[in-house]
Amino acid sequence: MKKPDFTPFDRMQEPPRQNTFLLPLIWLVSWLETRQGHLQIKRIRMEGLKPPFLVLGTHHAFMDFYVTPLALFPYRANYVSELEGFEHYGEWAYRQIGCLGTRKFVNDLSLVRNIQRVIARGDILVLYPEARYANVGTSSLLPSSIGKLAKLLKVPVVTLNMRGNYLQSPIWNLRRRRGSRLEATITQLFTCEELTTATAGEVQTKIQNALTYDEYAWQYETKQVICSPWRAEGLEHPLYQCIQCGQIGYMTTSGAELFCKACGSRWFMTELGRLEEVERPGASVHIPDWYEWERRQVEEEIELGRYGLELPVQVEALPNAVNFIDLGVGFLRHNNEGFFLRFADKTERALHISPQATFSVHTEYDYRNKGECITLSVPDNTYFLYPRGDGFYATKIQFATEYLYQKNRTRKGTLNAGPQ
Predict the structure, then answer these.
(1) Is the previous residue joined to 74 through a cis bond, with omega within 30 degrees of 0?
(2) What share of the chain is helix, strand, coil (3-state, %, to 5)?
(3) Tell me: the pLDDT tens digits for 350-379?
(4) What is the DSSP string of 46-58?
(5) 215-222 and 287-303 are packed helices; what angle lies between their axes, rounded to 10 degrees?
(6) All residues at 6 or more sequence positions from 24 whose CB lies less than 8 Å from its CB, including other chains
(7) How far is CA 392 from its chain centroid?
(8) In 171-183, which positions are buried (b, 16+ CB within 10 angstroms) versus exposed (e)?
(9) Per the count of CB atoms within 10 A, which of 61, 210, 230, 246 is most buried?
(10) Where are the beta strands (DSSP E) in 371-420?
(11) DSSP track, 270-301
(12) Backbone angles phi, psi at 151, to 5 degrees
């Protein structure tokens, strides 16, 4: 049996420029993949803009990686990517298509240095600041460091807001759907001069607004019909709590229906992406509204001191681009003090991540056919955690992580306030 390789990924290695000889193939594959959606690209203030510049894109689905090269044509670019892609496709290949390896939701100064290197040599740097696919087709709050990064680089800032990528293949059921078209708007948001005169906060706000989206609202407004008979299957992952009775863990789906096994409530997902109550014809729910209602329930739990998670988990580590390493069954605890992970193997004993150390958590609903999981990252390792007990809901853990971060950040700001 091959011995696991625990050597950390080399975060300091300078990323090569995107291989020129691969560019025609990248553009061809991207065109073929987006053909079904009849991709249309709208360009705003892009005339005459040449590298170097920073591109910040929305993050819906894997389709993002086909739309982006076409939006940047005829220029090549470097892309910030998580290590799962390096492991899956091979490090050499991933570097040849211009990827910079990093881990999600960690502070990585070596990544900042590599981004600076890309810009300094006159290239384009593409970053998807949401750092994970959209759970229900809506934008996430961006890390507050994005505005500071833009100011640091001192090059034009371009945003790429994509439409339809999520609707074609939502993270909770990756089967490709027909009926959704693809659109993208690429905008020069800041020139160098505009960037110089704006504060980091102003830059942050403008970027957040430019990368805001709601896929289901867009689908409904444009009357895009998605009639796949299985279109609701998997929706119980982000919508894990019944909005009628409040029970958690009883939601399930079949075909185009979502229903609660606790109270019997049923919703039919229409071909325009709305959830209509079966028992009350005409009454409907906007999927992102349900999702945000769940978020508020978690926030209330935290405020009332009722939130907490303790259960065994299967732990897999990804220290590099070579291998996932099975660390056996560990024990995960999450509460107001952050994450506590206890390992059962002999290589590592425990891990603690405080609330203020992680802006959010990466969620998966069926990662490589292994089911729901979350990932916890430190600079030199990523831990994939799969439940081995009841009470694990990836979306709920995400909501709690985000709220605890904001709460601790606000508290820190309050403590630091006053005369300087």
Answers:
(1) yes
(2) 30, 25, 45
(3) 899 999 999 999 999 999 999 999 999 999
(4) -TT--SSEEEEE-
(5) 160
(6) none
(7) 19
(8) bbbeeebebbbbb
(9) 61
(10) 373-378, 381-387
(11) -TTS-EEESSSTT-EE-HHHHHHHHHHHHHHH
(12) -65, -40
Task: Report the DSSP beta bridge partners of residue 334.
Answer: 309, 339
Q: What integer is the mean pLDDT of 337-343? A: 94
β-pair partners for 81: 101
pLDDT in tens, 21-68: 999 999 999 999 999 999 999 999 999 999 999 999 999 999 999 999
- Distance between CA atoms of 111 and 117, rounded to whole angstroms? 10
Q: What is the distance between the alpha carbons of residues 186 and 172, in angstroms, rounded to a whole number?
A: 27
Q: DSSP string of 252-269?
A: EEETTEEEETTT--EEEE
The tokens for 206 are 């403008």
DSSP 90: -
Residue 330 CA to residue 350 CA, distance in Å, equals 9
Residues in contact with 104: Cβ distance below 8 Å, sequence separation at least 6, in sequence order: 82, 131, 132, 362, 375, 377, 382
Upper half-sphere CA count for residue 350 (Cβ side, 13 Å): 4
Token digits of residue 62: 């894997």
Q: Cα–Cα distances in Å, from 337 out to 212, 308, 356?
A: 31, 10, 9
Question: What is the per-residue pLDDT across 315-338, written as a single tens digit (0 to 9) for each?
Answer: 999 999 999 999 999 999 999 999
Residue with the two structure tokens 């987006």: 34
Answer whether 210's CB lies under 8 Å from 190's CB. Answer: no
Q: Which secondary-structure segment (H or E) carries 353?
A: strand 350-353
Tell me if the bond preceding 52 is cis, omega within 30° of 0. yes
Beta strands 257-260 and 251-254, pairing class: antiparallel
Q: What is the H or E stretch that residue 335 is in?
A: strand 325-335
Q: Cα angle vertex 360, ends 94, 71, to 5°? A: 45
